[in-house]
């Protein structure tokens, strides 16, 4: 499997494109839809789905353009089902970057094992940054896409609606730090890290 990180949108949110031959998954298309669609088209990739680790505005800005261009479904956790359409809930109404919204997702994640096309992964509920945050664990490839739960030497903010520090710390310890130490962590912002590194070096949450 090939994984490509594309910082997109007003906050440089990491969008991930996972590909197996011509099949792909798009995770967190935060903006700059022309750039993302151009990358997919140039590399002859047909997305099977758009997956959202959560529905904050900086993770959803290109959702509708990519969904409509490739005619693919969107997945989000049910607790944030209404956030896509509501700038007050997805946060864009508060940041003076314009009101960002998208149509509702076609599907809600089932927690546990999932498969979409050739892609097999586990969905883990990791709330705290937001109530519907999920992390996507690709065990066969030894990596997790953690959204804004865990960063290199950092954690997601908890001062937005639905955020809670104790919940986030519990999610990291129970759902992320229990992964193998070798697991590579691809966060919503910034560079990749590993579970081993964060257990020993993250100043916000200890193991």
TrEMBL record:
Pfam families: Lactamase_B (PF00753). It comes from the Bacteria. Residues 12-189 form the Metallo-beta-lactamase domain. Coiled coil: none annotated. Signal peptide: none annotated. Residues 188-207 are annotated as: Disordered. Gene3D superfamilies: Ribonuclease Z/Hydroxyacylglutathione hydrolase-like (3.60.15.10). Its cofactor is Zn(2+). GO terms for molecular function: hydrolase activity; metal ion binding. Keywords: Hydrolase, Metal-binding, Zinc. InterPro entries: MBL_Glyoxalase_II, Metallo-B-lactamas, RibonucZ/Hydroxyglut_hydro. This is Glyoxylase, beta-lactamase superfamily II. The lineage of its organism: Bacteria, Bacillati, Bacillota, Bacilli, Bacillales.
């Amino acid at each position: 499997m090939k994984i490509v990180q594309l910082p997109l949108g007003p906050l440089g949110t990491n969008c991930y494109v996972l590909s197996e031959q011509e099949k792909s998954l798009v995770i967190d298309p935060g903006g700059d839809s022309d750039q993302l669609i151009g990358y997919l088209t140039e590399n002859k990739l047909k997305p099977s789905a758009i997956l959202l680790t959560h529905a904050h505005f900086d993770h959803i800005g290109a959702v509708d353009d990519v969904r409509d261009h490739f005619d693919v479904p969107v997945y989000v956790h049910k607790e944030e089902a209404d956030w896509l359409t509501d700038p007050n809930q997805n946060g864009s109404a508060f940041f003076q970057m314009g009101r960002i919204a998208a149509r509702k997702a076609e599907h809600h994640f089932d927690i546990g094992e999932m498969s979409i096309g050739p892609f097999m992964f586990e969905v883990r509920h990791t709330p705290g940054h937001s109530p519907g945050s999920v992390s996507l664990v690709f065990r066969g490839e030894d990596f997790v896409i953690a959204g804004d739960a865990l960063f290199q030497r950092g954690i997601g903010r908890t001062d937005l609606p639905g955020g809670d520090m104790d919940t986030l710390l519990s999610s990291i310890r129970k759902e992320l730090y229990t992964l193998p130490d070798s697991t590579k962590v691809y966060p919503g912002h910034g560079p990749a890290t590993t579970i081993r590194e964060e257990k020993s070096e993250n100043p916000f949450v200890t193991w």
